[in-house]
Amino acid sequence: MNKIVFLFCGLSMFFLSRNTTFGQDPLASYSSERKVLVGQFLAAVRNLENTFAREITKLDERTKKELRSNLGELEQFGRHDEAQAIQTAMTKIDSSASDRAKQKSKLTDFAKNFVSMEGPKIDVSLTTSAGSQAPRIPGQAVHYKGHYYMVYGKGLPFSGAARYCHYLGGSLATVDDQAEYEFLRQLIARSVVDCEQFWLNGTDDMEEGVWRTIDGRKLPFEKWRPGEPSSTKNQEHYLSLNRTKGWGFNDSQGVYRSYGFICEWVPKKKE
């Protein structure tokens, strides 16, 4: 039960964390922020569903074990009516487990129907400032193949890091190939940030094991550490770059973990 309460608390913590804003035009960042929010909501619901299924199965098995122990004693002393009642109870427990298996993922499916990834269609180009603002690239950002990158050690959850980069006119860094992966490793190594992990642009919160960028594109490059992605307890759905005990990608809990992060900017072309 404590595990389920923990997940409820974690879900509440996530929604409370959304109160932090960076002063951006609400419409300019509405679509991307909504996708992050919906994705983390669905991941939390999926985690809750899996935790409940795991704990109720443990309860079923423990109860049946105790009933079987009592059943042997009742049959030994000829108390057949009571023994039959216990047999009926165990059958009902098994039947209930079978029904739950058939209804698996119903809560997640309901949550998906409850929220829409697209949301209302808003033409942000018609607003006064949305879409017209050039990226606010920090002067310390490092140039690489036409893009700019900067390492931050603010210690934010995944959603906060994504929103912070978006506010600055960029996004969490997307690793396109081995060369860019090596560049980011060196960028982190040269920085004064002492974080062990850094958020990157990647998630499988909508479909377990299918890693995509926040805007839904297939992840162009993957460099997982040995044993990753582990999806521990089906709660790790957000991409980070881990530099402890050997570099590599790691799947992490985006709601409960606060890491450093890397922002990436693509300068607007002059018209």
Structure description:
With about 270 residues, this protein is α+β, with helices and mostly antiparallel strands. It has helices spanning about 1-15, 30-75, 80-100, 105-115, 160-165, 180-190, and strands at about 140-145, 145-155, 170, 195-205, 240, 250, 260-265. The longest helix is centred in the N-terminal third of the chain and has 47 residues, at about 30-75. It is elongated. The N and C termini lie far apart (about 60 Å). Mean pLDDT is about 75; it is low at about 1-25 and about 120-130.
What key attributes describe this structure?
alpha+beta, 6 helices, 271 residues
Mean pLDDT: 77
Distance between the termini: 59 Å
By DSSP (H or I, 4+ residues per run), the number of helices equals 6
The computed structural class is alpha+beta
Proportion of strand residues: 5-15%
Gyration radius from CA atoms, angstroms: 24 Å
Q: What is the H/E order?
A: HHHHEEHEHEEEE
Shape: elongated
Identify low-pLDDT runs: 1-25, 121-132
State the major sheet: 7 strands, mixed
Q: List how many beta strands DSSP finds.
A: 7
Helix content: 40-55%
